[in-house]
Design brief:
alpha/beta; 13 helices
């Protein structure tokens, strides 16, 4: 005759945990009943009596006891497997996710991006691991792993060997000498053509601008100067970006602080910004050039100021010539400097800063953000 089924002796930790589950009540019915079965069996209650206690079949009681003897308190959580058994394993899922994130040409396929059909076909016929999966299940699986179909974005990585040193210097002067900091950059090229933008209009009747394929006016460049402490922006349109024009802008910045104390000028690495003549003049008049790293003009504070300039003077415009464009730029600058705390200006500046951070993955005026692995 076979011996009666009985749970093994409980450890102190197991006994305390089972007691807590039983005293907690029926908030979790399955775990509560299984805890009762295990405690009753460990104390010597036979299986038929336990079945009457928990209103269950005797075979169910014995299964729970056998499971506890085999794997401990893990028996409290039944592993139900309703429906059809899984056709793909966790290793298959990991392989699917990795394949979706890999460019097709690296896996021997003659195209640059996956479609669901192409990815399903590759998974079903590849030399590494064969996985049979439907398109809708694949779509759901990728969504669960936060993989979506997105547009590719491009960026330039700065290869400047002095990148960290330059960024450190910019951070230092903007922190310690904020009232002596200025920024300079060229905005353009500006061409005479209708430029789309945004405006209020009747629903389904958008404002329309004429299309043109002719550029008969040439281009101009806006040479902008920005005072960080005073939040003032000024500048002038030029036909080209030359060293003489950059020097004229630097002289206007120096005139904003007529004392002999040093000022700090943040600008990019354009060759016209650091000619020998400019360096000599700056050394003589106590102007320190804080150059941004190569391909990292986002570190220049004036870049955020060009966003509102683009929105409010170039967007939704159709200037007839460069003279009109220059006048309207200057009119905007006068309004902007008189209302530099205007909510529209602040909102446009924030949007431009957010755009720069989003595109470059870099905090404002600092080093790249740590990317998730």
């Amino acid at each position: 005759m076979a011996e009666p089924v009985r749970a093994r002796r409980l450890t102190d930790e197991e006994g305390q945990r089972l007691l807590r589950l039983v005293r907690r009540g029926r908030s979790d019915t399955v775990r509560y009943r299984r805890a009762l079965i295990i405690m009753a069996s460990a104390s010597g209650t036979p299986a038929p009596a336990i079945a009457r206690l928990v209103a269950a079949d005797e075979d169910t009681v014995r299964d729970v006891i056998h499971a506890f003897n085999a794997k401990g308190l893990a028996a409290l959580d039944p592993q139900w497997a309703g429906g059809r058994p899984r056709r793909i394993t966790d290793d298959d899922i990991a392989y699917i996710v990795q394949a979706a994130k890999t460019r097709p040409e690296k896996l021997g396929r003659p195209f640059t991006c996956w479609s669901l059909r192409k990815l399903v076909a590759y998974l079903a016929d590849n030399p590494v691991r064969t996985v049979a999966i439907g398109r809708e299940r694949l779509r759901t699986l990728l969504r669960e792993h936060q993989i979506t179909f997105q547009r590719t974005r491009t960026w330039k990585e700065s290869a400047d060997p002095d990148k960290d040193a330059k960024l450190d210097r910019i951070e230092q002067v903007t922190t310690e000498h904020f009232d002596r900091c200025f920024a300079f950059d060229q905005f353009g090229p500006l061409s005479i053509r209708p430029t789309g933008g945004t405006c209020w209009a009747p629903q389904a009747h958008p404002d329309r601008l004429p299309a043109t394929y002719h550029r008969t006016e040439g281009v101009r460049y806006f040479h902008g100067c920005y005072s960080l402490s005073e939040d003032l922006l000024w500048g002038v349109n030029r036909r080209r970006k030359g060293g003489d024009h950059s020097l004229a802008a630097i002289k206007s910045i120096r005139a904003a602080r007529p004392d002999d104390r040093p000022i700090y000028l943040i600008m990019d690495n354009l060759s016209a910004n650091k000619t020998p003549k400019i360096r000599t003049w700056c050394a003589k008049h106590h102007v320190e050039l804080c150059l941004t790293p190569t391909s990292a003009s986002w570190a220049n504070p004036i870049e955020a100021q060009f966003g509102p300039l683009r929105t409010f003077t170039m967007g939704n415009s159709n200037h007839p010539n460069h003279t009109v464009l220059a006048r309207r730029l200057q009119a905007y600058l006068r309004w902007r400097n008189a209302n530099h705390r205007h909510p529209d200006v602040l909102a446009a500046t924030r949007r431009e800063r957010a755009r720069i951070r989003s595109e470059k993955g870099i905090r404002w005026g600092g080093r790249p953000l740590t990317t998730a692995a």
